[in-house]
Amino acid sequence: MENVEIEVRARTVDLAIEAAMQELGIDDPKRLEVEVITEPTKGFLGIGAQDAVVRIKPRPASRERRRRRGRKPGNGQEQKRPQGRHESGKNGGRSGRPARNDGRQARAEDRRQPEKKEKTVPDDRPVLPVEEQAKIAREFLEGLVEAYGLEGEVTTRIEDDVIIADVSGDQTEALVGVRGSVRAAIHEITRTVLQRHGQDSARLRLDIAGYAERRRQALTIYAEQLIEQLLEEGGEIMLEPMSPADRKVIHDVAAAHDGVTSYSEGEPPRRYVVLSKVEDGSGSDSEDAVSNDEEE
Fold first, then answer.
1. What is the per-residue pLDDT across 246-274, written as a single tens digit (0 to 9) for each?
2. What 8-state DSSP symbol labels residue 240?
3. How many angstroms separate the CA atoms of 239 and 234, rounded?
4. Contact 272, 15 (CB under 8 A)
5. Residue 266 burial by CB count (10 A; 0-12/13-18/19+): exposed, middle or buried?
6. Which of 29, 155, 197, 226 is 20 to 30 Å apart from 118, CA to CA?
7. For 150-182, how does the pLDDT look when each residue is reduced to its tens digit (9 = 90+)?
8. Which domain holds residue 263?
9. Per-residue CA distances from 34 to 21, 52, 241 (Å)
10. How many domains is the chain built from?
11. Alpha-carbon distance 289 to 223, whole Å?
């Protein structure tokens, strides 16, 4: 294991190290020797133009043995002092009784308590037609643009019961934020406004200063470049964490190519897409179908 050396390519150095740890079966990054061959570079709209390339190998066993001192052999984890009954029996809280007796006492007290029936609060919000919801969204966004002191125009339309809201104007670029962070926040606030006005709020798609369309186009080009590289070199490519809408763009592009599959890993907000070459020539279906609660 000491002589194993792998070279990993990923969107960031951290993702490359994480992938190497999984491949080597090591759960502690301190047990790795890391050499960064190529630093990642960014491109248009925050999309990386070049991956990080990292050479990684395990540290010598002698160092590992020093780290394992005082640990239980075989499991690579520190032996923790058992908690619960022994320590509770020693301290016993105020009563001096073991913790297991506390549990029986709590259950006995629960049996003595009368059962409380949950009261259902009626939802008095009206069910609004999607046209009325679109009007509410437009008025809210117009007030937001005015409150910021910007010049812009807000338009809404309805497609398949989805409200399409667009905020246009040169000054409205200020409402986009770094990599669309402000736009995403405004989208969530607008959805909350719709939910407070009525039940069963419609899905909402919001674009400001054309950012969403520009990002969709840039992501499509980016994914095409990565897939071309993947088909030539093989293996897997881990992308940077993305929003559900951005991940869906990558999955859709991958689904259009034979010999490539895509899937998502990680937990939000650090969930990312992995592109992988498959040998049987089959394609990929978009895994991240976006729910009604999301913007796309």
1. 999 999 999 999 999 999 999 988 899 99
2. P
3. 15
4. yes
5. middle
6. 197
7. 999 999 999 999 999 999 998 999 999 988 889
8. 213-277
9. 11, 12, 22
10. 3
11. 18
